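Morning F.,

Quick status update on the modeling queue. The single chain you submitted on Monday has been processed. Sequence for confirmation:
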Amino acid sequence: MYKYTIYVTHKGKVYQTNVIATKNQTEEEVYRIAKEQVLKQWEN
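Structure tokens below.
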């Protein structure tokens, strides 16, 4: 397992989030997970 720190832009703001992923996951998958985390947190 690897920990990635990802910056995601949402509604003009930049959010930092951490993603735990396996080494087999692609960069796109890791970014998608990060974006989903930010959306879940800020859309509610």
